[in-house]
Every structure is written in structure tokens, then in C-alpha cells.
Amino acid sequence: MKTIKWILMAAIGMPLAATAQSNVTLYGTLDAGITSISNQGGSRNTILATGMQIPNLFGFHGSEDLGSGMKAVFKLETQFGLDDGQMIGGSGFTRQTYVGLSSPVGTLTMGYQYEFMFESLSAARLAGSLPYVSLYNLQQGPFQGLGAAFGGLDFNRVAGAFRVPNSVKFVTKDFNGLNAGVLYGMGEKAGASSANTTVSAAVNYASGPWGANAAYTYAKDPSINQGKDGMRNWGVGGRYTTSQMQVDAIYTNTQNTFTNARVNVYQVGADFKITPTTILRGDYQLMKGNAQLADNKAHQFGVTLDYWFSKRTDIYANVVYQRTSGNGPTNAWIAGLPGASDGRNQTALRVGMRHFF
Description:
Blueprint: H1 2-11, E1 22-40, E2 43-50, E3 57-67, E4 70-79, E5 96-102, E6 106-113, H2 116-126, E7 164-172, E8 178-185, E9 198-207, E10 210-220, E11 230-241, E12 245-256, E13 262-275, E14 278-289, E15 297-308, E16 313-325, E17 345-356
Antiparallel strand pairs: 1-2, 1-3, 1-17, 3-4, 4-5, 5-6, 6-7, 7-8, 8-9, 9-10, 10-11, 11-12, 12-13, 13-14, 14-15, 15-16, 16-17
């Protein structure tokens, strides 16, 4: 009878040994709102837009205690449109998928995962201010000639629009406020081992109210010189936090290594706690292209007002304005909007709500 029991357990996929303690968490984020666009191809447009203040996500993450400070960890995460219920990026888990080991030294993971322009220069740098920075506050502008994916959306990779397939990643534990990480994404192209690869690294430091971050990513792109070249990004940033406010800043440099087209971004922001449940955030950024991009520039201003009903539900309003200049096509284009303007100005006004579970 014992033999039959083990055979049945194996046949239906049950673990034959389950002595270690494990846990699995189901989680999700939901965001929807109405966005009014002043100039989309020359016309005003009002849309129901979802996943702007935070992506609409659904996922599982978990760990198993292996003893001696070791844990097995995993994440399965997908993104979807709340307006139509359709998966974004294809079927299955399209946002993050990885498995790995956590130890007293650090965590090693393998799969489809973020590199460090997002994890260090957005998530770690902004910390508690991250929920008040929408996709509209990030980068796009008149830089389609840069050659980045998605029409230039998130060209400096700090918005989290990019994950790295076939990647191996190691992040150290925090040692007196200091941690670091490295990632390598395999190109998996026979006969050209360096083509289509991604290399990323970061260093983060936090002490008291101060935080500082630096990150580098070089992602070779199959559409750029047959995968032999790509987009090189690096940046530095930091923050200062008190009980009532946070001030933060970031600089990024993005270069197409084949054409030498380059965009520098300078951004500063601050948020203020008006009441324990009401947050006001403002930011300004300058995006500046080089001669290969006709010296195009974009100035962008954004303001967000957020009110929390509870720890899991809030409502918000934000307004973002972009004005461009330069010697080439200078159509303003705020990140996350469905289209560029027909001129040098574009404004987005949005009212929305979020729920976390």
C-alpha cells in the first residue's frame, strides 16, 4: 500500500518530500482612470486608460526555507489591460518569471526579469515616492530617431517597460546600507555568442535620510546592426527623505552604439505629505538629444495629487505638460499616451483610482 501511495503522489505531481516550510503569496495591482489629451495628432482625445499610475499586474511569489539561511524563491507575474481584460505582451506570465536561491550573501535568480536601470534608478531610488510617479511622468518625447523599441517609450529603461529574457541575476544582501547587483541576458544565437545579449549592473547605498544609486545596462538589439549593437544606458540618482517630504533627482544617458544617437535626461522631483493620507508630488525634466537627433529637446512638467482611502485603495489626479524644440521633427509625445501631438505641445490631464491586493 505504501508503494501505491508514492506512485500516485508522483503521478499527480505531489512532492515526495515536503519537510521544509514554504509559502506562496497571490498579489495584484489595479489602476484605471480617465485621461484627457490636449493634442493627439492635432485633435483633443479623451480615453479610458488603465495601468498608468501603476501597471495592472497579477502574480504569485513564494519561497521555501531550505535551512542554514538558504531559501528557494520564485515569481510568476503577468500584465493585463483592465479596460478589455486582455493580456499585454502575449499569453501566459509576460511580466516576470524566475526561480532562484536566496542565501546570507545574496540572491541568484534565473528567468525573465528586470535589469537595474529600473530596479535601482526607479524602485530603489524613489522608494516610498514610487507610487506617485506615473508612466506619464517618464520619458518619450521627440526622439523616435534614437532607434529604441516601442517608438522611443522608456528609452532610458527607468519605467520598467523592459525585462530581460534568458537572464541570470545576482543581487547582494544589504551590508551597512550598501548592495550591488549584476545581470547577464544570454543572446542564444548560435555562432555569435555576444549578439543580442544584455549586461546590467548597479550599486545602491542608503544611510539615514540619504540614498544614492548608480546603474548601467547595455542591451544589444536584433534590429540594430544584426544584434551586434544596441542601446547603452547608464545613470546616477539619489534622494533625501524626511517624515513630511522627499526630494529626488536623476541623470541618465542613452546611446545607440551603432548610430551614436544619444539622449541625456535631467529630472528632479519632490513630494509633500499634506496630511497622513494626502500626498502632493511635482517633477520637472529636460530631455536633450545630440546632433544625430537634430538637437531636439523636451521640457516636461508634472503634478500629482493622491488621496488614500486605506492602505490598499487610493484616488489621484495628475497633469503633465511637455514642450519641445529642435531642428528636426519635434512632435511632443508624453510617455504612455497613444500618439504624438502634431506640434510642440502636449498636455495630459488624468483622474483615476488604484487598488492593491
